[in-house]
Design goal:
Helix content is 36%, strand content 16%. It contains five helices and five strands. The chain has helices at residues 11-23, 34-43, 60-70, 84-88, 106-119, and strands at residues 3-7, 27-31, 48-52, 76-80, 97-100. The protein is globular and about 30 Å long.
Length: 147
């Protein structure tokens, strides 16, 4: 069974997401903030981590890099009320997706399915984030042969 670690400081959001994701067949572990999420990843790396951006003590943006350092194979989805931070903050490069919070978890579920599918070799998934440039992708789209 696929295990998802979900970190959010709001208990009602944690419990709602847990119920919805368990109904989809996932095992869900909960954390109250980024620090607790990091500790749980150290103890038992899940298959996927979902982090709220704004949490006390350690927020999602501060937790994403340590989580990826501990368990580089574990993808992280950022789950936020303000997805603008996902576009402007460089720490988001450690995440595979950024999903805006909503009472309807369809986007989050789609990001989870896409992320897990990409782990199984079905290609890179970067939902709601700018694409990462790889060494084979030039930063400029201008045709250099015209210079």
């Amino acid at each position: 069974m696929t295990t998802i670690l979900l970190a959010d400081d709001k208990k009602n959001i944690r419990e709602f997401c847990k119920q919805e994701l368990e109904d989809e067949g996932y095992r869900v572990i909960l954390a109250r903030d980024g620090r607790e999420a990091i500790e749980l990843v150290q103890k038992e790396p899940p298959d996927l981590v979902i982090l709220d951006l704004c949490m006390p003590r350690v927020g999602g943006l501060d937790a994403v890099e340590p989580i990826r350092a501990i368990a580089p194979e574990v993808p992280v989805i950022l789950f936020t009320a303000n997805d603008e931070d996902c576009v402007t903050d460089g720490r988001c490069r450690h995440a595979v997706a950024c999903v805006e919070k909503s009472e309807d978890l369809t986007e989050l579920k789609r990001a989870i399915v896409g992320t897990l599918a990409s782990r199984e070799g079905n290609g890179l998934f970067r939902f709601g984030l700018p694409p990462n440039l790889t060494p084979s992708q030039p930063e400029s789209t201008q045709d250099e042969s015209q210079s």
